[in-house]
């Protein structure tokens, strides 16, 4: 494992961290009909009844209710990064409290499917995904059980 020299998001533009260190997801909102989208994009409102072709970047709720979940018990195939040795991890689908859209994410280490229950309050955090050859630790948004 290379030594970690800095930390960067694995994917640019999906979340931001405020001055207090709290992350929030970045989504898109249609200015014409109010529909929210995640991951963010600049155009193509998904509402079939809306003709708007511009979406604006907006911060999304950092909390929501657990809508569904699963547990990965096998490592993903290359080129997807996986811990070695592989540790099972949970994936959560969380319905954001204000927007109502469902956002998938890994669940933090130490929380598996047996710990989860549909309807639970979840909150956003971030976690390391892998460290690249240049020593950059790549992070992703993740869900944890709300404290
Ligand atoms: Zn729209």
Q: What would your notes on this structure say?
A:
It is globular, with a radius of gyration of 16 Å. The protein has one domain (6-145). The mean pLDDT is 94. It has strands spanning 6-9, 15-17, 23-29, 36-37, 56-59, 63-72, 89-96, 102-107, 121-131, 136-145. By secondary structure, it is mainly beta. The protein has no helices and 10 strands. The strands form 2 sheets. It has a 5-stranded mixed β-barrel with strand order 6-7-8-10-9. Strands 2, 3, 4 and 5 form a 4-stranded antiparallel sheet that branches. The chain binds zinc ion (ZN). Zinc ion binds next to loops.
Present the secondary structure layout:
Blueprint: E1 6-9, E2 15-17, E3 23-29, E4 36-37, E5 56-59, E6 63-72, E7 89-96, E8 102-107, E9 121-131, E10 136-145
Parallel strand pairs: 1-10, 8-10
Antiparallel strand pairs: 2-3, 3-4, 3-5, 6-7, 6-9, 7-8, 9-10
Bound molecules: zinc ion.
Zinc ion is lined by residues 30, 32-33, 35, 45, 47, 50, 52.
Short description:
The chain is built from no helices and ten strands. It has strands at residues 6-9, 15-17, 23-29, 36-37, 56-59, 63-72, 89-96, 102-107, 121-131, 136-145. The strands form two sheets. The protein has a five-stranded mixed β-barrel with strand order 6-7-8-10-9.
């Amino acid at each position: 494992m290379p030594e970690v020299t800095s930390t960067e998001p694995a994917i640019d533009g999906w979340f931001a961290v405020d001055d207090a260190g709290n992350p929030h997801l970045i989504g898109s909102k249609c200015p014409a009909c109010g529909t929210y989208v995640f991951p963010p994009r600049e155009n193509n409102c998904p509402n079939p009844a809306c003709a708007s072709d511009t979406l604006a970047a907006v911060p999304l709720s950092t909390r929501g209710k657990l809508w569904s979940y699963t547990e990965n018990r096998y490592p993903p195939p290359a080129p997807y990064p996986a811990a070695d040795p592989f540790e099972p991890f949970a994936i959560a689908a969380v319905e954001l409290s204000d927007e109502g859209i469902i956002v998938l994410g890994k669940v933090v280490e130490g929380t598996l499917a047996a710990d989860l229950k549909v309807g639970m309050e979840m909150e956003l955090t971030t976690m390391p995904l892998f460290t690249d050859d240049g020593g950059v630790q790549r992070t992703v948004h993740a869900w944890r059980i709300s404290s």
